Amino acid sequence: MKLKVCGMKFTENIQQVAAMQPDYLGFIFYEKSKRNFEGIIPELPKSIKKTGVFVNEYKEIVISLVEEYGLNAIQLHGDETVEYIKALKCQFERSRELKIEENKNIKKKKNQHKIPKNEVEIIKVFGIKDEFNIDVLKPYLEVVDYFLFDTKGKERGGNGTKFDWSVLEKYPFKKPFFLSGGIGLEDLDSVKKILDSDLPIYALDVNSKFESEPGIKKIEELEKFKNNVITNGVK
Q1: pTM for the full model?
Q2: CB neighbour list of residue 53: distance below 8 Å, 6 or more residues apart
């Protein structure tokens, strides 16, 4: 089971969370978000996948930020279509090819920003409240690496509330997904229950329930959650 900590914002806090070795750290590039990220991402362990969160963003801006920050994954939190994702993947590939060609002709500079050597993972978010039409997922099965199911609410994310997880009992696909939406320490029992199911849950995504204020994560609570759920199983 993987762990993603989303909504990272401040350098010292990023370093503290990174020391816990989560699998993914999420950086939100959306001006309307209270956790909108601007600045420099400190050096992180290579095992951590830097994930950029975007909402209906221009493809050129997504590509630019992937290159600037060396993002390993992108999380699409808006109304992005299958055609949008296909076009984005084509641009990733073109950018990667250009960088390979450039590196043949010039000596690599230390810390040179570039599209990562491995393909950028694509995570498509779908909001759920009390019900969900599973059929909307079918067109995306071939173009994304993972789905992420979050709570549909006033904000695009970070609402701090859970949706009815029983909706996912009818999930018919093998495509793995991230489970998100208001997950906190008080949910250990319900997390254990859903993880014991046959659902292809790839990762748990946590955010606002572990904050003292938007963008600042509570390290001790995150450590407890990680140790109980990810490392040792729920206690």
Answers
A1: 0.90
A2: 6, 26, 27, 28, 29, 30, 74, 75, 77, 157
